[in-house]
Each structure stands twice: as structure tokens, then as C-alpha cells.
């Protein structure tokens, strides 16, 4: 039984490491998108926040917001629509 538990723990650790690596890759990819958007709209890359709504005006097809100047996401940088839509 102990060997089974050790094997299960090894599998768990492997999965945790894979998840952490995937999260790092996701963060890096998102920052690249933010940098590209920042160049397009002259906003600091760290301020860019990617929303959830489709946006025909945005080069990524999703609304993006300036999280520093527009903390409540009232105006997409491309279509000027708010994040919260009724």
C-alpha cells in the first residue's frame, strides 16, 4: 500500500509541475499579446486587460481595456463598449 501511495504522490507532483509550467507559458503568451496591443493603442502593456466580449474592432477579436485609466472597464480600447453589458 505504501508504494501505491508513493506512486500516487509522485503522479500528483508531476501533475502539479506540469500545471505550473503551463501557467508560466500562459502568462508569457498573454504578456506578448499585451505588448502587441500596447504598441497598437499606446498604453502600457501592464495596464492592458483582456476582456471576454467579442470585438470586431480589436486585432485579437476580444475587447481590451486600460486597467490603469479605466479600472471599471467602461470603454474597450477598440470599440468603446463596457465590459458589463446589459
As for the number of domains, it is 1
Mean pLDDT: 93
Number of helices: 1
Beta-strand portion reads 5-15%
Broad shape: elongated
The major sheet is characterized as:
2 strands, antiparallel
Instruction: Write down the Rg.
Output: 19 Å
- Unreliable stretches, pLDDT < 50, 5 or more residues? none
How far from one another are the termini? 56 Å
The beta-strand count equals 2
User: What class do helices, strands and sheet pairing give?
Assistant: alpha+beta
> Helical content, roughly?
40-55%
Strand adjacency order, main sheet: 1-2
Give helix and strand order, one letter per element, not per position.
Answer: HEE
Keywords:
elongated, alpha+beta, about 90 residues
What does this structure look like?
- The chain has 86 residues and is of the alpha+beta class.
- The chain has one domain (2-66).
- Helix content is 47%, strand content 14%.
- The chain has a two-stranded antiparallel sheet.
- The termini are far apart.
- The model has no long low-confidence stretch (mean pLDDT 93).
Amino acid at each position: 500500500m505504501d508504494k501505491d501511495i508513493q506512486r500516487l504522490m509522485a503522479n500528483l507532483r508531476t501533475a502539479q509541475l506540469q500545471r505550473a509550467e503551463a501557467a508560466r507559458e500562459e502568462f508569457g503568451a498573454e504578456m506578448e499579446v499585451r505588448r502587441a496591443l500596447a504598441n497598437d493603442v499606446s498604453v502600457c502593456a501592464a495596464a492592458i486587460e483582456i476582456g471576454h466580449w467579442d470585438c470586431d474592432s480589436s486585432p485579437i477579436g476580444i475587447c481590451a481595456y486600460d486597467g490603469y485609466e479605466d479600472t471599471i472597464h467602461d470603454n474597450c480600447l477598440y470599440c468603446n463598449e463596457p465590459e458589463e453589458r446589459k
